[in-house]
């Protein structure tokens, strides 16, 4: 989507969006800015992140970017501190950054396992910890974690499925622990979304045909489809929603 609708659904809010260089993260950062939020967009890919920032600013949005390895605790401390320093506060965290190595159980090395858990599960854990002091001081805040339908259905990439299932547990635990403090935590579960993360798998005709057969709707999703779900959960429209699973998968989990 080249242009996101302008609005006020996040007017006055400040958000950190990880993995904002491309795909769902880029779409979310752009949509948030279009809806009035000030956005701290983070990624390890500086060139891609710069493109996202340029598009936000070209659309009249307010944003800053940070090089950010979500698996490093010190990097989280820096991003939270610098975001608050730049915008004066912090209201929303979107834990989107992730990797998706293609290896099946018998071929997964310990290094593969540790790396995907470090980014896809430890990253959201560290992000949640990093924003909690600010949210508690503020009297509330919102965390939206990007999991995957792979957390709910069997699939060939065991390390990825396991990490995303862990994100679901992390989300529900966070929601339960901090509901009284008005900290909401929810997760979105994308199905097949055509992004840089999935393009190599979808380029394989056998994999693509199998995934198409398992998706009742006649096409895969777009990054914007997920971004709008994240927008709802991050907005005050969802003020009574916490610990919830928002599945956006074209019907893949219907059977």
What does this 3D model show about the protein?
- The chain has a 7-stranded parallel sheet, with helices on both faces.
- The longest helix is centred in the middle third of the chain and has 29 residues, at 110-138.
- It is α/β, with parallel strands linked by helices and 255 residues long.
- Strand 5 (141-146), helix 5 (158-178) and strand 6 form a beta-alpha-beta unit.
- Helices cover 45% and strands 15% of the residues.
- It is globular, with a radius of gyration of 17 Å.
- The protein has helices at 23-34, 46-58, 73-87, 110-138, 158-178, 199-202, 205-213, 223-234, and strands at 14-18, 38-43, 62-67, 92-95, 141-146, 183-190, 245-248.
- The mean pLDDT is 94.
Salient structural properties:
seven-stranded parallel sheet; 45% helix; 255 residues; 7 strands; globular; single chain
Summary of the model, kept short:
This protein is an alpha/beta fold.
User: What percentage of amino acids are in beta strands?
Assistant: 15-25%
Instruction: Measure the end-to-end span.
Output: 30 Å
SSE ordering: EHEHEHEHEHEHHHE
* Helical amount: 40-55%
Structural class: alpha/beta
Poorly predicted spans: none
Envelope shape: globular
Write down the oligomeric state. Answer: single chain
The number of helical runs is 8
Mean pLDDT across the residues is 94
Structure summary, number of beta strands: 7
